[in-house]
Design a protein that fits this description.
This protein is 60% helix and 0% strand. The protein contains seven helices and no strands.
């Protein structure tokens, strides 16, 4: 069993930044959810997504953004849109060769955040 954190296992800050950069680019460009980001600061989104992911994965960074519920309250995010975000993240993680166990843990953690992001608990993303 490795003593390395998931953060270290995926390659630390350089690899996590590459993952988050690609993920956020896809969020902004996505036909289903990109409109949520039309007035957003892409660099800030990348920084906060990086902090959130690094903290979850056991990196030394801490999340410094607003509480997730507060940050997303002004957006009427439906469950299917939340699921779309998860799907985009999973695609990037797979493409970046993140170990399956870490992908599964990250997806479960993301799902645990659903109540802070959307009031639509059951929405799914059926688009492939």
């Amino acid at each position: 069993m490795s003593d390395e954190s998931a953060y270290e296992q995926i390659g630390g800050e350089p690899q996590l930044r590459a993952i988050i950069d690609e993920f956020v680019e896809r969020l902004f460009a996505d036909i289903m959810i990109g409109f949520f980001f039309r007035n957003a600061d892409k660099k800030r989104i990348k920084d906060k997504e990086f902090e959130l992911a690094a903290a979850f994965l056991g990196g030394p960074q801490r999340y410094t953004g607003r509480p997730l519920r507060q940050a997303h309250a002004q957006h009427p995010i439906m469950g299917g849109q939340f699921a779309r975000r998860k799907k985009l993240l999973e695609e990037v993680l797979i493409e970046k060769d993140v170990p399956r166990a870490i992908i599964d843990a990250w997806m479960a953690h993301t799902e645990d955040l659903r109540p802070q992001i959307t009031g639509d608990p059951d929405g799914e993303c059926n688009d492939s």
